[in-house]
Amino acid sequence: MAIIIDGKSLAKKTRENLKKECDELKLKGIKPKLAVIMVGDNSASKVYVRNKSRACEEIGIEYEEYLLEENITEEELINLIKNLNENKNINGILLQSPIPQNLDINQAFKAITYKKDVDGFTPTSIGKLTIGEDTFVSCTPYGIMKMFEEYKIDLTGKNVVIIGRSNIVGKPLIQCCLSENATVTVCHSRTKDLSEHTKRADVVIAAIGKSKFVTEDMVKEGAIIIDVGINRGEDGKLTGDVDFENVKEKASFITPVPGGVGPMTIAMLMNNVIKAAKEQNNQDSKF
Ligand code: NAD
């Protein structure tokens, strides 16, 4: 029976520490502030954005929301981002995805200055992560690395299999795990014999978006299982990409859904906003 990695508690502890840091910054006259841009009307995005605003409120981070009409042009969106780049009161800029398909999200991300890129999605942040320079690490991979740290899981020499190659989870995770000396395999929808990879893995990280996709027969005894997936069933209940009830009997560590990776993602966003505020007010910053 696996040890359950309690992302909820770790996120709470992280937010408490960030609140202290935020209070200290305010004593120095620095008021961390996040700007969130949402385009169009997406119910899932609204929930995510609400959770982020609540976390900001709890920590004392100022928060500003820009709700843009579905039919906004790319130029208008990019102009808003450029204005926020220049706005000295704003430390972090977050563009909530998805955005309408007629807008090129990569162009929009590119417009965000890397100094305010608290989601770690701009090409500069991703490049810096790849060459091992200090940068904003995208929040979900960063949260997963913090969970490994907390539970003293050393990735050195471990075979890590990531399922999913998205820009926001799978790809940055490759760099995060590599920098901790893991041997990394990335699987995706075109991978042949997926089970052959996962059965050899010391660590499986599932970021697919398919409920209970990773089953007990796909993992080896004692494997460490990280479940990124968030899938809402017809009954409204959330499930992960891992068949938690059965896989937990075989794994050594496992993250639950909800209460695992999700809360850590938001905590790491808050961490990045505080980091941004510090860097932008540090005269010696080489960031
Ligand atoms: P995505 O849709 O961009 O990518 C899904 C990936 O899964 C793709 O790379 C695809 O190749 C792979 N895939 C699809 N079918 C597969 C199959 N049959 N076999 C192997 N690989 C397959 O997804 P994403 O944005 O990375 O999100 C993945 C999941 O994680 C979603 O459920 C999402 O809601 C969740 N998510 C959670 C958090 C969090 O904070 N917990 C953050 C981001 C995403």
Give an overview in words.
With 287 residues, this protein is an alpha/beta fold. 41% of the residues lie in helices and 15% in strands. The protein has 10 helices and 11 strands. Strands 1-11-8-7-5-6 form a 6-stranded parallel sheet. Helix 7 (170-179) links the parallel strand 5 (159-163) and strand 6. Helix 1 (7-27) packs parallel to helix 10 (261-280), helix 2 packs across helix 10 and helix 6 crosses helix 10 (261-280). The radius of gyration is 19 Å and the shape is globular. The mean pLDDT is 97. The structure holds nicotinamide-adenine-dinucleotide. Nicotinamide-adenine-dinucleotide binds at residues 140, 163-166, 168-170, 187-189, 191, 194, 207-209, 228-231, 261-262, 265.
Overall geometry comes to globular
Question: Alpha-carbon distance between the termini?
Answer: 43 Å
Q: Ligands in the structure?
A: nicotinamide-adenine-dinucleotide
Q: Per DSSP, what share of the residues sits in E-state strands of 2 or more residues?
A: 15-25%
Total strand segments: 11
Q: What is the helix tally?
A: 10
Query: What series of H and E elements makes up the topology?
Result: EHEHEHEHHHEHEHEEEEHEH
Give the fraction of residues assigned to helices. 40-55%
| Rounded mean pLDDT score | 97
Layout of helices and strands:
Layout: E1 3-4, H1 7-27, E2 33-39, H2 43-59, E3 62-68, H3 74-86, E4 92-95, H4 105-111, H5 123-130, H6 139-150, E5 159-163, H7 170-179, E6 183-187, H8 194-198, E7 203-206, E8 224-227, E9 231-232, E10 238-239, H9 244-247, E11 253-254, H10 261-280
Parallel strand pairs: 1-11, 2-3, 2-4, 5-6, 5-7, 7-8, 8-11
Antiparallel strand pairs: 9-10
Helix pairs in contact: 1-10, 2-10, 6-10
